[in-house]
Specification:
Strand content: 25-35%
Number of helices: 4
Radius of gyration: 18 Å
Order of helices and strands: HEEEEEHEEEEEHEEH
Number of strands: 12
CATH class: Mainly Beta
Shape: globular
């Protein structure tokens, strides 16, 4: 099933290229209907695949995540499903379904947030450029599954409202940070909270399902190669990073 999904995505991407960026939107969904070794996203060392109880079917479960900030992040073997040059790919949206089964203390007033990261090439997270988009509040513990969708107009030359940059590019012009990350997303993350905030460490029983990305927006074609914003050379990773 996983191979079929990947081959379909590759075929549709090739079709978009052949048609000269005709608008063929394609959504890939990680539904966790496989083994833990096969999935494209994980949530720490204690996560597991549960065959039933998701939204619907299987889901990724982390029953005892002791952390101030639970997160679902893209991983090998094929992280490029959720990464790469978002401008060329014509990415429009990412999404996730979340279920907070229980939490040891107060979950607090926190959003589910999307983070897109461009690695700096040094191996030090402090050198990475991070973009963040906070979404709706997390589901109340025990209230069931809640879906979150994040609009990512990757073809736009300016950073949309409600997005922000932090990490190595916090001091860059907003549009420069947006452009640089959109042309090379190294990792996507779904945070249960805001990574810039300070939270108490709690034990979370949490589930994730239907991590998804939609791409193929035709507007991306003529836009991505026009007018790259100026960035100090010292602030950018080397050509082999």
């Amino acid at each position: 099933m996983r191979t079929r999904d990947v081959m379909l995505l590759i075929a549709l991407s090739a079709l978009v290229s052949v048609l000269g960026w005709a608008e063929v939107l394609t959504t890939f969904t990680e539904n966790f209907e496989g083994t833990l070794q096969d999935v494209y996203c994980r949530s720490g060392s204690g996560n597991e695949i549960v065959a039933a109880g998701g939204n619907p079917g299987a889901f990724l479960h982390n029953p005892a995540a002791v952390t101030p900030l639970p997160v679902l992040a893209t991983v090998s073997p094929v992280p490029w499903i959720f990464t790469g040059d978002f401008r060329i790919l014509g990415v429009t949206d990412l999404g996730i379904d979340v279920n907070v089964f229980a939490v040891s203390g107060e979950a607090g007033d926190r959003p589910v947030s999307l983070g897109l990261i461009r690695y700096g090439g040094t191996g030090d997270p402090a050198d990475d450029c991070d973009l963040l988009l906070p979404g709706k509040e997390i589901p109340r513990p025990g209230s069931g599954w809640k879906s979150y969708n994040f609009r990512v107009p990757a073809w736009k030359p300016a950073m949309p409202a409600h997005w922000s940059a932090y990490g190595a590019c916090a001091s860059w012009p907003r549009d420069t940070a947006w452009y640089q990350v959109m042309q090379r997303v190294s990792e996507a993350r779904f945070y249960i909270g805001d990574p810039r905030a300070s939270y108490s460490t709690e034990s979370w029983d949490i589930g994730f399902d239907n991590a998804r990305v939609t791409r193929g927006k035709s507007d991306a074609g003529p836009t991505f190669a026009i007018g790259e914003p100026a960035v100090p050379v010292s602030a950018l990773p080397g050509p082999t990073d």
